[in-house]
Amino acid sequence: xxxxxxxxxxxxxxxxxxxxxxxxxxxxxxxxxxxxxxxxxxxxxxxxxxxxxxxxxxxxxxxxxxxxxxxxxxxxxxxxxxxxxxxxxxxxxxxxxxxxxxxxxxxxxxxxxxxxxxxxxxxxxxxxxxxxxxxx
Length: 136
Hints:
Elements: E1 4-6, E2 9-13, E3 17-22, E4 27-32, E5 37-42, E6 48-53, E7 56-61, E8 66-73, E9 76-83, E10 94-98, E11 103-107, E12 110-114, E13 120-125, E14 128-131
């Protein structure tokens, strides 16, 4: 995906969405064409920005032995965790910020973000965030 570097942010803008990766806070904010947004970050103050590899934003916690690659995709984003040793953490706390009125819901082991009207606007999957497109 095409992106722009703006101060400490990597910004991707298309007709369907805008995404922003804040390099200092390891936070991805994704806003769809209907102005629904979600922000996700890893709760680890020792996770530091390392490099931008063709739009893949790499963070690393050298002491804990893991890294996270953030990638913006057409229709969502993903975070890829690289666990580098047996002593690396096996679980991670991920912070999720939603628009006012939106909520995270679980249905049959799957997670969705619903807006204030109860419509599913985002789907959270093990491999990233997928956007539910309305077909009408």
